[in-house]
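Page 42, continued from yesterday. The earlier attempt failed because a stray header line got pasted into the input along with the sequence. Redoing it now with the clean sequence only.
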Amino acid sequence: MFNKLSESLTNRLIETGIIHTDELEIYRFGLETLMMKICHLASYLLLGIFFDKLLELLLFIAAFIPLREYAGGYHAKTPLRCYLVSCLTVISLLFLLHATPSQVMNYSMILAFLASTILFFIVPVESANKPLDESEKTYYRSKAGFLIIFILTGALISRMLDWNYLSYILALSLAYEAVIAIVGLRAGKSVHMQ
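This time it went through. C-alpha cells are written below.
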C-alpha cells in the first residue's frame, strides 16, 4: 500500500519538476518510510486513547524510541510484521500500566537497574538490516549509554519524589528495550549459525 502511494507521489514530483529522475529511489524510500512511521504513530495514539493511557504512552515513547534507535535489537523482516509487533508491544505496555498494582510500582527501580545492567553489557545490538562497523558501534554504544543513564536517573528521581507511576513507566522503557535487545541478539546468533 505505502509502496504504491510513495511511487505515485514521487512520479508526480518528477512530473512537476520538483525532483529529478535520478533522485526517484531516494524520495520514494523516504516517503514510504515517513508514511509507515505516521501510520505506526497514529495507531499508537489511537491505542493510547482507547486504553485511556495517552499521556503514559507518550512518556514511554519519549524515553523508548531514542533508546531503541541507539541500542538496537530485534527488527522484523517485513513492514507488516514490524507494524504488528510494534502494536502488540504497545498493547502489552498499556495492559501492564492498567493491571499493575500500585504496590508493585514501588519496586520499579529494581526493574530499572536490572534492565539497565543488561543493556550496558549488550548494546548496541546490530541486526541483519542494520550492521554496524567498529566506529558506529562505539558511537551507538556511547549514545545508548547516555540515554540509559538519563532514563535511569529520571526513574530514580521520580521514585525519590514518590512519583512511582512515572518511575514505573521509565523502568518499563528500559525493560522493553532490554527484551528487544536480547531477542535481537538471539536472532542474530541464529542467522550467523545458518
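Notes: The chain has two domains: 1-50, 53-193.
Reminder to self: strip header lines before submitting.
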